[in-house]
Amino acid sequence: MSGNIRGFGYLESLPPVTFRRLYQQPATALAIFRRMLPNLAKTIVTTLLYNETPVALGDLEALVRPESYRLACYAFSKLRRLHIITENNLDVSLDPVFKKNFRLALTGGHVWLLSGGDNRGDHHSFGVPCNTEDKKKITVQFLDDYATRQFEAILHYMVGTHNEVKPSKGVITLLTKGGLMERHGAGSVATITKNGFSFLLQDGNPQIWALLIQYLEMSEELGMEQTDVLHFLLMLGSLELGQAYSVNTLTETQKLMLADLRDYGVVYQRKSSSDRFYPTRLATTLTSESGGLRSASASMSSAMVKDAEEGKGFIILETNYRVYAYTDSPLQIAVLNLFVKLSTRYPNLVSGRISRRSIQEAIKMGITADQVIDYLSAHAHPQMRKSLVTLPPTVVDQIRLWQIEGERMRTTTGFLFKDFHSTQEFEEVAKYAEELGVLKWKKPARRCMFVTRHEQIADWLKRRASAQQQQLKKAAA
Amino acid sequence: MADSDEDYIATDDEEIGAHNVGKSGRHRPAGGVAAAGGGSGARSKNGNKPGGGAQKRERWEDIKRSWDNVVEGEDGSLSSTVAGLLEAGKRKRLLKDTTPLQRGIIRHLILILDLSSAMMEKDFRPTRYLLSLRYACDFIREYFEQNPISQLGVLGMRDGLAVRVSDLSGNPMDHIEAIGKLRLDEGKGAPSLQNALEMSRAALFHAPSHGTREVVIVFGALLSSDPGDIHQTINRLVEDKIRVSVVGLSAQVAVCRELCKRTNAGDESVYGVALDDKHFRELLIDTTIPPVTRSAKMSASSLLMMGFPSRTVEKTASLCACHSELTKGGYLCSRCSTKVCALPMECPACGLTLILSTHLARSYHHLFPLKNWVEVPWKAASKSTHCYSCQIPFPHPPTKPEELSAPAKTATGTSVSSRYACTVCHNHFCIDCDVFCHETLYNCPACQSSVPKGKVSNGAGGRGDPMEVD
Amino acid sequence: MDTVDASVHYSQAIDEKPSLLVLILDTNPYAWSTLSATLPLERALASILIFLNAHLAFSHANRVAVIASHTKSARFLYPTTTTTTTTTAAAAASGSEDPLRDANKYRQFRIIEDQVQASFAELMNQTTAGELVDAKETMMAGALGLALGYVNRLVRVDDGGVLGAGAAGEVTSMNARILVISVSGDLAEQYVPVMNSIFAAQRKKIPIDICKVAGETVFLQQASDTTRGIYMQLEHPENLLQYLMMCFIPDTATRRHLVPPTQINVDFRAACFCHKNVVDIGFVCSICLSIFCTPPEGAICTTCNTKLDISALGNFGGNPAVVLTKKKKTKKLKQSKATSFSNEASATSTPGTPAS
């Protein structure tokens, strides 16, 4: 669970106009396709991509096995929410802007590949590399070190460990605005919040996105063009590590952003007046999905991205609740210290044990049991991964039980549906909601139910209503 | 009591084995002292020597410790040595004899499982009993994978009796189901080798002469409670040309050794005692490879009639003749058009053997094995920079002349330049591709990727000559 | 709202593994030239490149490899080892290293495209007219072998030398599949190696998809059937791209949720070794498993030179035999269970041996 931190999914709530504008850049279209769609939705997009005429929704749904109905629903709702498909009655087609630019992204604007009249693109959306040699060679190693230093500085600052690099003022403002840190009174030192703890337990990629989304919101207040900011962020993901890119083709907003992104360690620029910038590994992996990170970049050396790599886990958890962590990073030790009672420290190893008290203290700080378990399994030592279940089930269950001890009530945010016209209508909607897996509670006697999300149901109701109306019309005619 | 128990070595083994278990408190640790329990644990290469017996130095007399092999690298870590050992292990697995031999492709095999009280021991986890049942299922799957046109039956030894588990048939699912039912039982009483062997002899009596007759025994006990003289049974087995191989679970038993030796023309290598569960599995799975035909008389060759049905898809479902289930697709018998749902099978109506042509093809690699590849010395290494198949880069040749002239084969059997060359097309491969090509693919990708000068037309590039009788 | 979105996305992302696509392109110039009216090779290559890009667009971690199965050789088009020559060739082929062009194309796409095109051009340049005389075959066995070797390295998680571990549920880091774009037919000479490759793929659970643009091959049909791949015979080859983007794009994990393209009757009949007839009932040598349409002359197997005992066959396929009254019972038994149940004792006395 990501608590109250907004991740990449936040983008879904943007208005349609923004999406249309985003899709004008092939790089952005590609990034959204790659990062935000489930595989099934991607398949649907490619199926439609070179179809000139709209396809009936029923035909598309017939491609999916009946057992996977729920997945198909999810895929379609995702496509609808991102405004990638447009629906006309029951026909589906791709958004024309998206279609054109996604094709451009795939073909690179080769005219000879296309039967249609698309022109050779001239969009520069994949970044313009510098064609002159840099005076000082910037190595990938250097960029990784830089990114690690900058980003770890932020994390260190949050946990309050001492580190030689202090994050800049902009970063601190961002953290406080985002609710990850809070300041009691004007001059006092900022302390970490509950959200901050959940943030710390996340993987590298969601962390970066959480920061950038926060940045996106803030940029609006500063009067920056939101689509410009997003274009730039998504473009960063398609750049090549170790390659210098020219600043000249960027818009004014984007040039302003460079300075901020430098603070986060996402890009590197020697001087703010320099006419070139280097994306770091944090940038180039922005649009790769979390699962792909590990194998994609086996040579990755940046610390927090490294954690996401499967082969580089460092924690061993035994059935007797003992924890051994092969690490000397003060950051990781600090994070572990949140929920483990550490007892011994060696040059490359810390050991301790998970106890009822240590977990309950963590829970008091706002960390959930699931977060602890996710963290442990995400960073489990390769030796632990050899077994079928990564973590000892007893310990996992016990951690959950310790959390439940303090919880008699569970809250779910969601939506209440009531005032249905008939029992039949109620039952139909309830059944649909159950199929989608969003139904939490229902009471047929009072015809009301509680669901965790409503868009799909609303959509479905709308479509059903229009279908009914059409039927009525037909009947009338 | 069987003859085996009056044998001095056997009891000695038993004692050491028991001591070992008690001391370590765990199930048999691999290697080292544990080999004592195994006697001639691994199938020794020199098993062919007649009458080695007590004079031969037993394996457990040379104690090998795993830490003797490990040498600290220059940087003080063990990683380089460990990587080297891994590679050596892969290579060792690989180096098989690849002379093409005539093999009995059509096999008739009885699997005898020990279901006696000795199987309730917990030295294999969870118990010998359950583990052997699990591996038996693996064995059956692998057996039919490797020998698609063969037959198999399963027997059990329990309470001094031979129990029929499943009949001789060609359908793996029948056997696996039957073995699955045993899971609820547990081992009881003493086993009787003689009874089980006599029963399998009877079951194999009708096996046609063109096929092999084999018995594989999983034997957990150290005794056999027989009603008569087992040696006479062995004589009869030899007469009937039935070969017996045994996988022991506790220690070497003299009568098993003799049984294997007599029925396999003096070859003892088919008797193995498992050191640990991995080794147990290996020993059992090894028996799925078709046996070598020893003499022309051993099995008469004949011509078999077979049907090659094509798969049909019907619009409406109909009953299949084999399981009486409604199916929409299936195979129609080439002779009588009876529908069956799976192959290989004997047509339930007319008795024709129905088979996929792909099943026949599956056995071809036994007949035309891929030759072993050879290590490449540094001198010849410069011609390749990458593995031909997987494109992994090779290490560069050293610059010093004395290193260049190092022999191709290192002490551990690996290639000094990490390259392995196909003897036919002389292309270089890495160890992983070497293993893959010999154990899974059975082709040399390079030989298949180019037309050799002499234009081999039968597609046998990289393969040996036509097989010969051993 | 937002929190829900994030969590759903998170849980969704876990089960999507990156996938590896190995594309084998049959580049037999002879076969392509017959197709030039509907689908010239250049156009096909362009479609394939878009398809590869689309595959790469699915995930950052997706990988491709392209192998050409040519008339006399099979080789990698991408990735290639001879980087120095190909990059310069690529620069030459694409005109120049124009920075504007870079900006219009995702770098990963561009690198692969250039390399494939360059090595393809190289392959075509090396093909002399002389080689093409009666060059109807294609090195499919070699190409499959290369593909499997490559997949094996990329996919495999080193199990530390444990051979048996594979059976207990293999851990792989990637899903892999092989797609063959085939234009030529007859592969009879490569029967055994192709079959070996198919079984290797089956054991490794790598589906082999066949996109059949032209020609007829029974083997490749069997390949896709055995490995649970997709077999598709294109009715309109000119729409290659559309076929590729619709049917062949989903990876193995996604396919579990999709209705597979309609199953077809698979021809499993075998070709006999003696006359290359396609038979549905044949005679098989028990030693080498050679298939014959009629018992071979003199009852000697033509492949392994073994004297075969054909008496056990009984009289199937021959004239009805006059049954001797003396041994009536055994014969009846044998008539019904002809091939597998004939013991030595009675085999010799069976009448009605077909004339050879």
UniProtKB/TrEMBL annotation, chain A:
Which compartments does it reside in? Answer: Nucleus
Q: What GO cellular component is one of the record's annotations?
A: transcription factor TFIIH core complex
Q: Which UniProt keywords apply?
A: DNA damage, DNA repair, Nucleus, Transcription, Transcription regulation
Q: Where are the transmembrane segments?
A: none
Location (main, coarse): nucleus
Positions in coiled-coil regions: none
GO process terms (BP): nucleotide-excision repair; transcription by RNA polymerase II
The entry lists its GO molecular-function terms as:
ATPase activator activity; double-stranded DNA binding
Instruction: Work out whether the entry's keyword set contains DNA damage.
Output: yes
Q: Which residues form the Transcription factor Tfb2 C-terminal domain?
A: 397-462
Please give the family membership noted in the entry. Belongs to the TFB2 family.
What the protein does comes down to: Component of the general transcription and DNA repair factor IIH (TFIIH) core complex which is involved in general and transcription-coupled nucleotide excision repair (NER) of damaged DNA. Component of the general transcription and DNA repair factor IIH (TFIIH) core complex, which is involved in general and transcription-coupled nucleotide excision repair (NER) of damaged DNA and, when complexed to TFIIK, in RNA transcription by RNA polymerase II. In NER, TFIIH acts by opening DNA around the lesion to allow the excision of the damaged oligonucleotide and its replacement by a new DNA fragment. In transcription, TFIIH has an essential role in transcription initiation.
List, alphabetically, the NCBIfam families matched: tfb2 (TIGR00625)
The name of this protein is RNA polymerase II transcription factor B subunit 2
Taxonomic source organism: Tuber magnatum
UniProtKB/TrEMBL annotation, chain B:
**InterPro entries, per database record:** C1-like_sf, Ssl1-like, TFIIH_C1-like_dom, TFIIH_SSL1/p44, VWF_A, vWFA_dom_sf, Znf_RING/FYVE/PHD
Top-level taxon in the UniProt lineage: Eukaryota
Task: Enumerate the Gene Ontology biological process terms.
Answer: nucleotide-excision repair; regulation of transcription by RNA polymerase II; transcription initiation at RNA polymerase II promoter
Q: Where is the composition biased (Acidic residues)?
A: 1-15
The alphabetical list of record keywords is: DNA damage, DNA repair, Metal-binding, Nucleus, Transcription, Transcription regulation, Zinc, Zinc-finger
Q: Name one GO cellular component term.
A: transcription factor TFIIH core complex
Q: Which residue intervals define the domain VWFA in the entry?
A: 108-288
GO MF entries: zinc ion binding
Q: Which Pfam families match?
A: C1_4 (PF07975), Ssl1 (PF04056)
**What's this protein's function?**
Component of the general transcription and DNA repair factor IIH (TFIIH) core complex, which is involved in general and transcription-coupled nucleotide excision repair (NER) of damaged DNA and, when complexed to TFIIK, in RNA transcription by RNA polymerase II. In NER, TFIIH acts by opening DNA around the lesion to allow the excision of the damaged oligonucleotide and its replacement by a new DNA fragment. In transcription, TFIIH has an essential role in transcription initiation.
Q: Read off the PANTHER family from this record.
A: GENERAL TRANSCRIPTION FACTOR IIH SUBUNIT 2 (PTHR12695), GENERAL TRANSCRIPTION FACTOR IIH SUBUNIT 2-RELATED (PTHR12695:SF2)
Kindly provide the name given to this protein in its UniProt entry: General transcription and DNA repair factor IIH
Q: What species is this protein from?
A: Tuber magnatum (white Piedmont truffle)
UniProtKB/TrEMBL annotation, chain C:
Stretches the record annotates as Disordered: 331-356
Task: Give the record's GO biological process terms.
Answer: nucleotide-excision repair; regulation of DNA-templated transcription
Q: Where is the composition biased (Polar residues)?
A: 336-356
**Entry GO terms, CC:** transcription factor TFIIH core complex; transcription factor TFIIH holo complex
User: Which compartment or compartments is the protein found in?
Assistant: Nucleus
Q: Does the keyword Zinc-finger apply?
A: yes
* GO terms assigned for molecular function: zinc ion binding
Keyword Magnesium found: no
The record's section on InterPro entries has: TFIIH_Tfb4/GTF2H3, vWFA_dom_sf
- Protein's name in the database: General transcription and DNA repair factor IIH subunit TFB4
Q: Which organism is it from?
A: Tuber magnatum
The organism that produces this protein has a lineage beginning with: Eukaryota, Fungi, Dikarya, Ascomycota, Pezizomycotina
